[in-house]
Amino acid sequence: MKMHLCEKAEELLLEPSLNKALQEMQSLQIKWREVGAVPREKRTEIWIRFKAAVDKVYENKRSYIDSQKEFFEKNFADKNALITKAEEIINDKFANHQQWQAGLKKLLELQTDWRKIGPAGKEHNDAVWSKFKATCDQFFKNKDEFYKQKKQEYAANLQAKTELCIQAESLKESDAWKNTAQELIRLQQEWKKIGPAGDKNEKIWHRFKEACDAFFTRKTAHFSVQDEAQAGNLELKNALIAEVEQVEVSADPNEALEQLKAFQRKFTEIGLVPMKQKDDIQQRFRAAIQVHFDALKAKPEYRQSFKRSDRPDRGDRPERGAPRGERSYRPANEGGGNEEQRNLNSKVTKLAGEVQLWENNLGFFANSKNASALREEYESKIQLAKEEINKLKSRLAELKNA
Fold first, then answer.
1. Residue 239 burial (CB < 10 Å; 0-12/13-18/19+)?
2. Which positions ≥6 away from 5 have C-beta within 8 Å?
3. Nearest to 185 by CA among 208, 201, 207, 163
């Protein structure tokens, strides 16, 4: 019978379930004590065999307990590490929705990692879980407080943006192009200073943009008509230059001066040309006129007529109210150098101010999907104005060095 118990005990060494092996081993030990004595010469041998099997099962139990202790300790350390990371998250200063969403994502990842970690032992399980849960709860409390405050800010921002929309809508039908454009640009700059309006931000933006686009579209259409007129003026001035180049002025100095002054007045009266061609057309006209003035200077009669107040520098001055930038030619070295410098400085100052204004407006429409035409208009204006400033500065340097 005890040999049979030894065999049963040894079979338990192969049992995968430690709890089952321990329970059955306890049952075998009870049965062992119930079996009577065996022959004296076999007593020690059979006892040693049975005890070896019993000791091995209980050794497996001790090994399991030791391994579980290490397992719990590792889990406890891992969970404390997650608590530290969660505390770092709630200590971060989240300033906007994107940052809060990023923080939320990190915290949810920590909660997923927590569920993957096993128990930390009975003595630590409840305490470590309570600490982790309290940390997560604090994050969500802070998050709710942030969005509550943001909701109030969004309402205030929506009100401010609505007021700007009303102002922009009142201007969209205006024909005071310059002043209205400046006022809309000011409103656009004010818009940039206002924060977001929450889920209504896109809707209120489209309302404001629609009002601005309505005015600037009308403005573009209006000035496109002027562009056509300027193109016609360019053709007229080209024809006038060709006429000046081919004309034979009168042999009489007085008549010649009147003839040249008439050309200059006609050139000014034609009006503006496209900015890209303005400098070229002026230089060509001046060069054509200069040829005739040089021919007059070579004649003795010129000086006599010049003394009678028929000097060419008076006759070629622009009439009052003539468009700026379309002034008639003044012969070189015929006086008025200081006046020309003042005019050039004034033009530089005015153009620099316009460039700054246009660049502000360009910055506002940079992200507008439907404003490519406006962007191109402003970019072209800025480029041409900067080129004009450089030319004016070069001319100023020439006058100073003359």
1. exposed
2. 28, 31, 32, 35, 50
3. 208
Q: What are phi and psi of 273, to 5 degrees?
A: -120, 165
Alpha carbon distance, N-terminus to C-terminus of the chain = 133
Kindly give the confidence (pLDDT) of every residue in the chain, 402 residues in length, as a single tens digit, with 9 standing for 90 and above.
Answer: 888 888 888 888 888 887 888 888 888 888 888 888 888 888 888 888 888 888 888 887 777 766 677 778 888 888 899 999 999 998 988 888 889 999 999 999 999 999 888 887 778 888 889 998 999 999 999 999 998 998 998 999 999 999 999 999 998 898 888 899 999 999 999 999 998 888 889 999 999 999 999 998 888 877 776 667 778 888 888 998 998 888 887 777 788 888 888 888 888 888 788 888 888 888 988 888 888 888 777 666 554 554 443 444 433 444 333 333 333 334 434 344 567 777 888 888 878 877 776 666 655 554 444 456 566 667 777 888 888 888 888 888 877 776
What single letter denotes the amino acid at residue 367? N
Task: Flag whether the pTM goes above 0.85.
Answer: no
Distances (CA, A) of 259 to 198, 245, 282: 71, 13, 18
Helix or strand (DSSP H, E) at 189: helix 177-193
Residues counted in the chain? 402
Taking residue 267's Cβ as centre, other Cβ atoms within 10 Å add up to: 26
Interatomic CA distance for residues 19 and 65, integer angstroms = 12
Residue 320 neighbours by CB distance under 10 Å: 5
Domain map of the chain by residue range?
2-145, 158-214, 215-331, 336-402
Q: CB within 8 A of 275, min separation 6: which ones?
A: 381, 384, 385, 388
